[in-house]
Every structure is written in structure tokens, then in C-alpha cells.
Amino acid sequence: MASKDGQTLPTKEGSLFRQVVKFYETKQYKKAIKAADQVLKKFPDHGETLAMKGLTLNNMDPSKKEEAYELARRGIKNNLKSHVTWHVYGLLYRGDQNYDEAIKCYKNALRIDKENYQILRDLSNLQIQMRDISGFVETRTTMLGLKASNKSHWISFAIAHHLNGSHQLAAHALKTYEDMQEEVPPSEAYEHSEMILYRALVLEEGGQTQEALAYLDASKDLIKDRIGLLEQRGRLLLKLPEEREAAEDVYRKLLALNPDNHRYHEGLRAALQLEPDENGQWSEEQLQRLEELYDQLAKQYSRSNAVQRIPLNFKVGVAFEDAADAYVRKFLNKGIPSLFSDLKAIYRDPAKRDSLGSLMQRLLKSLENTGFLPPLRNHDSGPQPPGPQAKLWALYYLAQHYDKLGQTGDALAAVQRCIEEAPDLPDVYTVQSRIAKHAGDLEAAVAAACKAESLDLADRYLNSSAAKALFRAGRIEDAEAMAAKFTKHGDQLNGLTEMQCMWYEIECGNAYMRRREYGKALKKLLAVVKHFEDFQEDQFDFHSYCVRKMTLRAYVEMLRMEDNLHHNVFYSKAAWAAIQVYLELDRAPASAANAASAQDAADAKLSPEELKRLKQKRRKEQQKQKKEAESAAAAQKKEAEAAKAASKEKGGTPKKQAGVAAKEKDTDPDGDQLAKVADPLAEAVKLVRTLKEFSADRLQTHLLAFEVYLRRGKLLLALQAVKRALQVSGANHPQVHCLVVRFCQAAESQQEAVKEEPVVAEVINSEVQQLLAGKSLAEYNQGFLEQHGSDSLLHRAAAAEMMALLDPNSKAKAVQVIVKRGGLVGGGVAADALRHADAVAVHALLQDTLGDSAAAQEWKQRCSKVFRWSGFFEGADRLHLDVTTTDTAAAQANGVADAMKKVSLSN
User: Fold this and answer.
1) Last residue of a domain, which of 266, 296, 314?
2) Which value, in Å, is the radius of gyration of the alpha carbons in the chain?
3) Judgement on whether residues 237 and 210 belong to the same structural domain of the protein
4) 452 to each of 230, 433, 460, 462, how far by Cα in Å?
5) Helices 853-866 and 836-844 meet at what angle, rounded to 10?
6) Which pLDDT value is given to residue 76?
7) What integer pLDDT is reported at residue 381 of this predicted model?
């Protein structure tokens, strides 16, 4: 280890080098540096000492990273055949999370010292972190050969083969180690139990169901996790048709332990062969057996919510109405606000949706007329006495029901009656805010959400709802002040980022994007992307911890969760928004040029004296900004020196001693550098690649991928986005139709460029013919309009937009497609269901893309009669509230309360 160009150091210097290693391992970095300098004073080219000094410097002071890397490189250059220098270089890369380079360094080190246990261990951790499973198997096999008596090596060897798909070999390794143990000490009983369950899991996933079941039955006395044992046996028995009765018995035992676990209900129904077909339908025989089953379970578990809720999924007609009537009364009588959220999934069935609305109206009418709930059908009992606020909660449900159906007037009238019943109930104002948001009245949504928050200042959910409403209304500063109430004083923005509060960052990023402040938008949105990188990094320490603690099933589950981490909806939303920002920045150079030209033109109109004063003013502003930047840099330097001085006095690193002062300063707090990226589309491509891999089941991914690749001139990748969008949503989707037309037009316009690559040209021409089914682009678009023009407003708008794209001279005709068939001529808006967001999109299409201001204005006037609460369409019934500040809780509460007194949200 302590060698100088292949020769051993003298005794004194060799001893000093060993002290360097010892001091580093015990984190006595100053002593390690001092000892290394003593060696280098006599042997300045000793590679291993140079490398160790670099590693120590990097750990002691991260600001000296470049010096540390330079020392490590010098160490390798001076001693290329030392495993120590390569290992140290790998440790530096690992510390910077550059795992690919670290793995290369470790492999170089192993070429020199093939059996170095420490390097093998570090390499295996990086391989599983990077999911180099074949390399992980090889490394773990080597480690097992070196120390076959070590339990963790056997376990890791089995995990490696399990992840590699070699289930039989993994199970055999676990059995071999189990047979090697003569006796399991009581202190290791739990760890041994987990190993048994893990081996059974490996056998199960390897298709050895009978063997896994027999193994569990033989080892059941050694298993401590009794519920885990039952769950695993239940899964195994379900896979054996001849063991369905035994599976039923297992799941009934599990239901006795937890009758509200829906997975246990699914297992019981599977054991009884009561699962629906691929269309989600049950046969008549199955429906009868299901009713009998849940009638029996209802008697057995009368207090279980799941037992009463699940029958609503399969019952129909009168049976559904009776079951729903019995179910909702408990919620109304006890005042449980989550009833609508619980039943919202049923609204996919129009018949059940209407039944629930009629049921709640009937219950409300009875409460208002008699003060009692009507008697249950097929029950001998008469009218039932209601809970103290049953009427309030019936109105509360109906407000959400009407909002779901798009009946804004009825929803607002119902919620206003709720306010009259309970003016101090925050939940009511939360629903009122949601209804106003759906109706397009963002300011009313803000007022209601802030009113709810003011009624319970300790409720974080209400605070978050108010902040979201403020962001969506474009009041970013007020929203940040609202969200800051639950963060450390004076550090609200950093606090929310450190807490990885992703809903806040996404909403804030979207708000800045709407303001066209793209740097700040990217700052927030890319912070969410960074959180997911941190989530992946956080798994690193668990690779050895979980094996040591024998939490093997949880470990494998965690690895699989991490493998699919970027499918999370928060990541998708942040990445989509960031890509949209980059697309806007790609248009920015033209915008900047236009702005500069406009500024020059404005300057040219000034008199010489006015122009001189303007230039002086600009020069003063520049000098002021420069001084402020210099002052900030000086203050930062002073803080760093103070932290360093404190560290010297008290010992330890500046970070530990200086606390907040030692935090790394954000050099780009407003994202200005992010917005000045040289190639925005290249940055967008990085996000698109991740989304294509992990969020390929979401249409928005392919819509944005198409836009990015089309702008970069990558026709094959744009074609891939079109085909995947077709797989996700089909050719009937209006946005997918636009993609097909735009791609085919781009393919035609770039034929000459593509001809230089015959294979690419052949593929694209073939796909274009297949997409258009042999029609011309105009015929294809006209066919879409004729086939789907009556489906929805968006289908007509998509056809009209493509009509104008294919023939700019046909814009007037495209406007008529929307105007005549969209309801601008005649008494009202379209007869089809019209969402507020769709109406806004059509207005933008008429105003911007088709350039018909008159038609856009007429559309706005017509929509104002339908969306009477919309701020965008300036509806007559929108609320005009004077709530302008959220600086303090008192001002917030008083301002909103005064405004709400003037509001009447009646139909």
C-alpha cells in the first residue's frame, strides 16, 4: 500500500502514511493533512499520499474540490499501478454522485488487486445503485468466494440472482446458507423469519408455487410475521385452482383481522371466483353470489366501512339505491365530510350518478319538510331521527354533486345554503372555492379559500388550498406569504424547497410561466426534478443497511419502487411544465430582437436632451446594480471568513460550527442563468427522454415530445411520438389528430432534405401513407371533421385549426366551422357539453391562430352568458371582492370576512 514508484517507503514515512489513512478514517482531517505533508516533504511524488491528501481535502473543505481532484490525478500519474490511487479517485467521483466514473475507477483498482474486499464492497453498492445487475452478480459471486462464512454475502448473492431473474439459483443459495446454520440464536429469530419469507417470495416469483407453499408450511413455527405469512399463503393458494377453498379460508382469517383492507376483499372474491370480466361486468350468477357474500359479511362485520361500500360497485337498479341509501345515512348523521370523495368513483356510471343525486335530493327534502329521514325501503321502522347537522351535510354533498355535473348555479346555491347553516365551518368555504375555480372565477376562489384558512389557522390543508388558489389567480407574492405561515420565520422559500414541497413548487412554477417569468418558473420546476434525483440517491445507504437488518422483502420492494420513481405524477407535471418553458425560450430570440427593435424605435422618437437624460438614468441604474452585487459578494465573503474563524476556535468544520451562515449561497436565486441556456431544446430533450421511459402511458408526454423533436428537425423521433400518442389515445382524439396532420405536413415540406437518407425517406413515406390511409391531408382533415364534428367543440376546433394550417387562405372558412357549428350564431353556445377550459382555448384559437378578433369577441360575449361566473369571459355574476393582501393572518381574516359579507352566491 505504502509504495513509491513500486518500492516501499522508508519505515518512518511508511508509518506516517499509515497515520494518514487512520486519521482519515477517524475523520481527523487536519491531522491527516499534516501527516501527508510530512511524507510529501521528503517524497513529493508519492502517488498514494497525494491521492489520500486529495480525498481528505475534499471531505474537509468542499470548496477545494478542484485541488482534491488534481492531487488524485497526480497520484494516479505517479503510481498508475496502485489500487489505492484508483480507489481514492473512485471515492471522489462517488462523493460527487458521478457513479459511472467511480465504477470505472473501482474496476481499474480491482485489476491491480482482484481480491480487495473493501473495493469489491464499494463496487457492488454502486452497481446495484446503477442497476448494473449482471455486474452486481459477478461482484457478489467474487465476494462470496472470498468469505463464504459471512451471512451478508450469502444474502446479497441471493438478492443479486433474484434481481437478475435466476430465481432457482437465488432460492438454492438461501437454502444452502440455512442448512449451514446449526442453530438459530434467539436474538436472530426475527432475521431468520424474514429470510424464510424472502425465500418463499423468490420461489413464488420463480413460478415454484407448490415448493413455496410447502416451504412456508414446513417453517411456519419459525415465522414471526403472522400477517405476512397469511398474506403470502393466500397469494400462493390463489395460484393453485385446486386450493381455492384453502385460499378462501386464509382470506376470511385476514378479514377477521382487518375487515377494511380492500386487498383482502379482492383475495376473497378471487378465491370464490367472483371477479368481473375484462369489461368490468359480472354475470347474473356472480351478482347473486356477491350479494349473498356481502350480506353475510355485513352481519359479521357490522362496523366495517369497506363491507358496506364495496357492494355499491356491483349492485344496480333498486338494489343499488337501497344499499346507497343505507350507506350515506351514516355519513350524514355523523357529519363526515368525505362522503362525496368516497363515492366519486361511482360517477363513471351515469345511472348510478343520477341515482345518488336523486337519493340526496329526496333525503334533503324529507329533512326540510318533516325534520326526519324517510324510512328505509323494505324496513319496518318508520322515519328515522337525523343527526344534529344532517341537513347541512346533505347540502354539502349536493353542492359537490352539482359541481361535478357542471351545474354551477345549483352548486353555488347549495353551498350558499351551507354557509347560512354553518357560517364558521371551513369545509364549506373549501368547496365554494373549488366550485368558483371550476366556474372560472379565480378571485372568488381565492376569497373563499382564504376565508376557510382564516377560520382555522392551524390547519395546514386549508393553508395549502388557499396558497394554491392564490397561485392560480396569479397572486404569487400573496401565495408565498400564505404558504410561509408553516415554515421557519424568515426563510420561507428555502424552507419549502428543503421540505420538498412539490405541489408548491409546481403551482409556483406554473404561475411564473403564465407571467412569462421563465427563469423563476424553471427555478421552481427543476427543483422538483432535483427532488427525484435526491430520492434516487437516498437509496444508496439502504443497500447495505437492509441486508444487515434482514428487511429483504421491503428492500426488494423499495428497489422496484425506485425503478419506477419517475412515473410519479409530480415528476410528470413538473417536467411537462419545464418542457413548455423551454419551448417558449426557444421562441425567445425573436421576441428579444423584436423588443430591442421596439426600444430602439422608441429611443429614436426622443429629443437629444431626453435621450441624454434617459442614457444617464440607465447608466446610474447599472452602477447601482453593480454596487449591490459587489456588496452582496463582500458580505458573503465576510460570512465565510467568520465561519472559518469560528471553526478554528471550536474545532470541526465550518458547516458544523457556523450553522446557517455555512449554507451554500444560491448564486442564481431568480433562475436568470437557467433562462439564458444556450440551447433550450437540448435541455427539453433530457426531460423528454425520461418521460418517454417512465410516463409513456400519458398523452401529454408524447404531445410535448413531438413538439420538441419537430422543432429540432428529428422526423423519425417525431413520428415515434405520433405513433405512441395514437396507442395511448387513438386517432379520434383532437390533439392526436393535430399531431398526425402536422407530422404529415412536415414530412412533405422536408422531402428534399430527407431524400439524402433513402432508408429514412422510405420509412417516413410509408408511415405517412399508412396514417392518412391513402388520402390527401385536406381530405383526411375533412373526413375527421365530418366524422367527429358533432362529438365536441374541441374536435371541431382541431379540424378548423388544421384547415388553416394546411391552407392559410382558408382561415375565414375555419372560423365559420367553429362559429356556425360551435354556437356563435343563434341563441347560445354549442348544444354539446362545454367546459370552461375548452371555451378559453377556442377563444385563443380564434384570436391568435386564426386572427379573427371580431369572431373572438363575439365568442367571448356568448360564453359570458353561459359561464356567468367566469373572470376570463367577464360574466355578469362573477364576484368582485376587495381582498388584496395576505401579509398577516389578521389582515387576511378581516379582509376576506368583510368581503364575504357582501357576497351572495345564489343562482
Assistant:
1) 314
2) 34
3) no
4) 45, 9, 11, 6
5) 170
6) 94
7) 72
Structural domain contains residue 521: no
pTM of this structure: 0.86
301 plus 250 within the same structural domain: yes
Are residues 170 and 292 located together in one domain of the fold?
A: no
Mean pLDDT, rounded, for 550-577: 96
**Distance from C-alpha of 572 to C-alpha of 724, rounded to nearest angstrom:** 17
Q: What is the C-alpha separation between 814 and 818, in angstroms, rounded?
A: 7
Together in a domain, 185 and 136: yes
Last residue of a domain, one of 197, 220, 243: 220
DSSP H helices in 422-551: 426-439, 442-455, 460-472, 476-483, 492-498, 502-514, 518-538, 542-549
190 lies in the same domain as 52: yes
Q: Are residues 115 and 215 in the same domain?
A: yes
Mean of the pLDDT values across residues 364-369? 94
* pLDDT tens figures, 774-806: 899 999 999 999 998 887 889 999 999 999 999
Shared domain check, 136 and 189: yes
In tens, the pLDDT along 393-438 reads: 999 999 999 999 989 999 999 999 999 999 999 999 999 999 999 9
For 809, other C-beta atoms within 10 Å of its C-beta total: 7
Give per-residue pLDDT as tens, 714-757: 999 999 999 999 999 999 999 999 999 999 999 988 877 666 67
Residue type, 16: L
Give the chain's domain count.
2
Asked whether the beta carbons of 583 and 708 are under 8 A apart, the reply is: yes
8 Å CB contact between 113 and 83: yes
| In a domain? residue 48 | yes
Indicate left, alpha or beta for 8 from its phi (over 0: left) and psi (-120 to 50: alpha): beta
Which of the four pLDDT bands, split at 50, 70 and 90, describes residue 624?
A: low
Cα distances from 797 to residues 702, 805, 879, in angstroms, run 20, 12, 30
Are residues 211 and 275 both part of a single domain?
no
* Cell numbers that stand for 326 in this block: 343505507
pLDDT of residue 789: 83
DSSP state of 697: T
Domain of 176?
3-220
Q: Note the helical H segments in 605-731.
A: 608-650, 654-658, 672-675, 680-694, 699-711, 715-729
CB 85 within 8 A of CB 75: yes
3-class DSSP state of 761: helix
Domain containing residue 191: CATH number: 1.25.40.1040
